[in-house]
Design brief:
Low-confidence stretches: none
Helix content: 40-55%
Mean pLDDT: 94
């Protein structure tokens, strides 16, 4: 196979305790034409000096201000000169041939814009990892889930999702991107800051006629939760704010009217349940998210206009890769805990057509 230049950009913020194992695994992987960058997002400890001392061969990109995940990776996109770009969290380790499997798939089809490897737990390689598993999906109401994880139910990896499959979004923990696609779709939306930014980017890729795919032959191990706690006010806020924000700007008008009100209704059901459980973290996070949306209509309209101008396919095509139902109802109402149990769930087997 050919080995086109591939940039691996590892985002770091006060993550020295993760970096050695991550960097050693990436440096020692077998792909010959890779350039490794560490993008330090204004760390407040001695990460940069430690990197310069122990890894002088690594290109260090220093961000003076921490403006979030999206702004940092957009800086990384401009630094990388290769054909392909891999966004990689600092709390992962990789298998020796992980890049080869991704590149080989990308080289087979120029319509592939993004690929995700299979992501398993760092602590138990028989279980999927919360943030990525074997590829991201989403229902029509804007609720994301994974092949291998529905809400807090994480499956064991028994090979049930080992098919190369078209997915709706790829995890930002390890996201392989064709750089030419970004010239069409634009880069990460910095309004999002972090959380669901990769879903938004992959949605735009779909709107522009590209494919997003999972390649389970490529495997990484992810610790997860290294930057923001699994349950925190910030995480609740960002997830609920951004899920509605990307629906409002990416859906066609008819589907905004069809699906966004249902999402709001489901949010208020969560608020009611959380009040009964005295879970004020969730209540506060959702209410703050809704307040942001109400206070920023002009920003949302401006972003929507920009996104809709790049559209080359209709929502009917994009929705082929959305789950046409409610994952909330399936999981909490019908007690279906895995993708394979979902009503009318059909994997989208990858095809070069």
């Amino acid at each position: 196979m050919e080995y086109p230049e591939t940039d691996v950009v590892i985002l770091n913020y006060n993550g020295k305790k993760f970096l050695k194992e991550c960097l050693d695994s990436v440096i020692n992987c077998s792909y010959p034409n890779k350039k490794i960058h560490v993008l330090d997002n204004a760390s407040t400890d001695d990460d940069v000096s430690w990197l310069k001392q122990h890894y002088p061969q690594i290109n260090i990109i220093q961000n003076k201000l921490n403006n979030g995940y999206c702004a940092a990776y957009n800086l990384g996109f401009s630094a990388g000169k290769g054909k392909y770009f891999i966004c990689l969290n600092n709390d992962v380790t990789v298998h020796p041939q992980w890049i080869e499997h991704l590149v080989q798939l990308a080289e087979s089809d120029e319509k592939i814009a993004a690929i995700q490897p299979k992501i398993v737990s760092y602590f138990d390689n028989k279980k999927f990892e919360y943030a990525g598993a074997s590829g991201g999906m989403m229902d029509v109401f804007g609720y994301p889930f994974l092949r291998g994880r529905l809400f807090n139910t994480i499956e064991e990896d028994n090979g049930q999702y080992d098919d190369v499959s078209e997915i709706f979004w790829t995890s930002g923990a390890a996201m392989f991107i064709r750089k030419e696609a970004l010239e069409v779709t634009d880069t990460l939306d910095e309004t999002i800051v972090h959380h669901m930014d990769e879903i938004d980017l992959c949605w735009r890729m779909r709107m522009c006629g590209f494919k997003t795919v999972v390649q389970p032959l490529s495997v990484i191990h992810h610790i997860g939760g290294a930057t923001i706690q699994t349950k925190s006010f910030r995480k609740v806020y960002w997830n609920h704010r951004n899920s509605l924000y990307i629906m409002l700007k990416n859906y066609e008008c008819k589907n905004v009217l069809r699906y966004v009100p249902v999402h709001f209704l489901l949010d208020y059901i969560v608020i009611a349940q959380s009040l009964l459980q005295r879970d004020f973290t969730t209540v506060g996070g959702i209410l703050k998210a809704h307040a942001w949306l109400l206070l920023n209509p002009l920003l949302i309209l401006r972003k929507r206009k920009s996104v809709q101008r790049m559209r080359t396919v209709t929502d009917n095509e994009v929705k082929r890769f959305l789950y046409n139902g409610s994952i909330v109802w399936e999981y909490f109402g019908k007690k279906r805990k895995t993708c394979t149990q979902l009503k009318n769930y059909t994997p989208y087997e990858y095809s070069t057509d």
